[in-house]
Design goal:
Layout: E1 12-14, H1 15-24, E2 37-46, E3 49-61, E4 70-73, E5 77-82, E6 86-88, H2 97-117
Antiparallel strand pairs: 1-4, 2-3, 3-4, 3-5, 5-6
Helix pairs in contact: 1-2
Length: 119
């Protein structure tokens, strides 16, 4: 599921400040990066099912491994994890409305944090 028009897509931020913001909101970057891209995930468990709110971005300046990159964010996604196949984001997935609302609230907090970073 894509979260369109959240106000964070196409926003930019310095990687170190973005890492701080995302960590403060419960996201993990861990090893999910390469020299040009980053992926932040926040895990949710609802009634035995596992879901991930994912925010991805790519470097428009610098490289991710230097921590001095400037990252441009993409449209956030919500996916359901299926063991052992991975995460599915398809339109055929059904997501609990309470989870969707919670994710929208978190993304609004990301937007507010980005506004402070870029002020």
């Amino acid at each position: 599921m894509k979260f369109e028009n959240t106000g964070i897509e196409n926003q930019t931020a310095e990687l170190s400040r973005l890492d701080e913001l995302m960590t403060s909101l419960g996201f993990v970057r861990a090893g999910q990066w390469d020299y040009e891209r980053v992926t932040y995930d926040r895990k949710f468990e609802v009634k035995g099912d596992v879901y991930y709110l994912r925010v991805q971005g790519y470097a428009i300046e610098g490289e991710v491994d230097t921590r001095y990159a400037v990252i441009k964010l993409l449209t956030p996604l919500l996916g359901k994890h299926y063991y052992p196949h991975g995460v599915e984001y398809g339109e055929g997935e059904n997501f609990p409305s309470s989870l969707v609302s919670q994710c929208q609230s978190i993304l609004a907090q990301v937007k507010e944090g980005l506004a402070k970073i870029n002020a």
